[in-house]
Specification:
Layout: H1 6-35, H2 40-44, H3 47-63, H4 71-97, H5 102-127, H6 129-152, H7 154-171, H8 177-192, E1 200-201, H9 202-220, E2 225-231, E3 238-239, H10 244-255, E4 264-272, E5 275-283, H11 292-295, H12 298-310, E6 315-322, E7 325-333
Parallel strand pairs: 2-4
Antiparallel strand pairs: 1-3, 4-5, 5-7, 6-7
């Protein structure tokens, strides 16, 4: 996100105001040297004088007139400036036509009013750069906070599933329980430490998914049809943490059945340059009353919000249900 520091904003404002005033001032001096004292009327109706008048009015309006507390004071200043602009329009009409023509004077008046407001809005824009800068910073911090909040929503759901797996293993006195606890410890460290960062190494995110799947394999048995395949090199690439795991959790939550021999979960990761294609497919039982609205619960809603925040116009998420298979396909440009 492009953002200027407060110091740069102050320097930019000083440079603009100083340069703007100096340009108008030197134009007036140059015109005075070339025309006075013989051509005083031409001098008074020259572009240099016009721009100097518009500049003075714009600065007085911005810094003083419109900030007066009383309505009468504001109105008086505005009327005075309008009278000055009208007189300037009359003078220019007289100088060009040797008489004051109302229609031409009105044309000059509207032109002068337009230029005055142009200068006023230019001054207003430059002086409010610091406001826009603070707004962009607040917007950036808000997006960071939103992203962190959405990441935090994953933790209780994941931990609930993981401890259920451990509980099942403990009931069976599984020899794999200590190593699974160790895996879970490493995953919790990732959840509490690395996931607080804006971006993490892609290889760490995939390692986290691999350990999650390892726990699920222990829970459902070695014969469970669970596959995790990676094509391409994840080294040197970064991704927002805990994005991909949502699709994996969703597959196990809705699509894997311990008592069904046809149940499966397949996860394919393809990495080409700075693009990652993450495809998760899982079985759906015929007897399961499947509906897309039920499937797309908090997890997928969370994922969509985070993708919109972190990878705006850099991602594609496709969800489809066909032939008792649910497929989630996520493509992200990591740049």
């Amino acid at each position: 996100m492009f953002q200027l520091s407060d110091k740069k904003v102050r320097l930019l404002k000083i440079f603009f105001h100083t340069g703007f005033i100096l340009i108008v001032f030197f134009q007036v001096i140059k015109k005075a040297i070339n025309t006075l004292p013989d051509k005083w009327l031409f001098f008074l109706t020259s572009d240099a004088i016009e721009y100097s008048v518009f500049t003075i009015i714009a600065y007085v309006l911005y810094y003083y007139a419109l900030k007066c507390k009383g309505l009468w004071y504001k109105t008086s200043y505005i009327i005075f400036f309008i009278v000055v602009i009208i007189l300037l329009a009359f003078l220019k009409s007289y100088r060009i036509h040797n008489e004051v023509l109302l229609d031409r004077s009105f044309d000059f008046f509207t032109e002068f009013i337009g230029k005055t407001f142009l200068f006023y809005f230019l001054i207003n824009f430059v002086n409010r750069l610091d406001f826009f800068n603070r707004y962009k910073n607040l917007e950036y911090q808000l997006n960071l906070a939103k992203g962190q909040l959405l990441r935090n929503q994953l933790h209780p759901h994941f931990l609930f599933n993981a401890f259920n797996s451990l509980y099942s293993m403990a009931l069976k006195n599984s020899a794999e329980t200590p190593s699974t606890i160790l895996k879970l410890s490493g995953m919790m460290r990732y959840l509490t430490d690395d996931s607080a960062n804006k971006k993490v190494k892609l290889i760490h995110e995939l390692k986290f998914i691999e350990e999650y799947i390892a726990i699920e394999k222990i829970r459902f048995g070695t014969q469970a049809n669970i596959k995790f395949l990676i094509q391409g090199n994840p080294e040197g690439k970064n991704i927002e943490p805990l994005l991909l795991i949502i699709l994996v959790e969703n597959a196990f939550k809705h699509g894997f059945y311990i008592n069904d021999k046809d149940a499966f979960v397949t996860i394919n990761v393809s990495i080409i340059d700075q693009r990652i294609m993450f495809i998760v497919e899982n079985s759906i039982l015929d007897k399961q009353h499947f509906s897309a609205s039920n499937r797309e619960g908090k997890g997928l809603d969370n994922l969509k919000k985070r993708l919109q925040l972190s990878y705006t116009k850099k991602h594609k998420l496709l969800l489809e249900h066909r032939n008792n298979v649910y497929k989630a396909q996520l493509e992200i440009n990591l740049v």
